[in-house]
Amino acid sequence: MFFKSMEIYGFKSFPDKTILHFDKRMTAVVGSNGNGKSNISDALRWVMGEQGAKSLRGDKMEDVIFHGTVRRKPMGFASVTLTIDNCDRALRVDSDEVVISRKLYRSGESEYKINGAKTLLKNINELFMGTGLGRDGYSVIGQGKVSEIVESGGSKRREVFEEAAGVSKFLAQKKDAENKLKRTEDNLLRIRDIASELE
Ligand code: ATP
């Protein structure tokens, strides 16, 4: 699995549709200060489901939408599309290429897609779980992240190792199953109450 390309449109300092093609081995982004280099890694984390406005260096999620300049009007939405090579089936989708996209309107309405089909954020998270990618993945290391991991307490550091070892997706599935079990037990209790009232 590797990133093939990313299309950015209306996201932060990218009001024009911009397509980045990634080299299979290594891609370096160079540019002077304030040129938008970090905005590219922000776009990458955002399309993979990042939910924290602060970790995208904003105050609220709307801040990722191009806010305009003296010469250009602000945009009404931001959209990022990431194309991933999946020939090795590292992502559990039966296609050689996986395209994920995310769009956010100023109204707050947002849209996620996997291979062109509308989906939920939950499915984007599940797609990347245990691969090291995704919003909680360790493959995008932001400034200060290494020291944050080193200085963090045991449980936070453990989460990083769990994701690396592929355990996190099973923990999430376990939590899902426990929630379902709890809901079923609650329903059973209600049914028993109704049945005893009827007797
Ligand atoms: P450095 O080398 O200093 O770390 P950088 O190349 O990583 O800089 P970024 O932090 O990616 O630069 O980009 C900063 C620029 O992005 C600023 O000029 C800022 O005004 C612009 N920017 C951020 N959010 C938006 C937005 N919503 N709309 C328009 N421009 C934005």
Automatic annotation (TrEMBL):
Subunit structure: Homodimer.
Protein name per Swiss-Prot or TrEMBL: Chromosome partition protein Smc
Domain note: Contains large globular domains required for ATP hydrolysis at each terminus and a third globular domain forming a flexible hinge near the middle of the molecule. These domains are separated by coiled-coil structures.
Reported function: Required for chromosome condensation and partitioning.
Family as reported in the entry's similarity comment: Belongs to the SMC family.
Signal sequence interval, chain numbering: none
Location relative to the cell: Cytoplasm
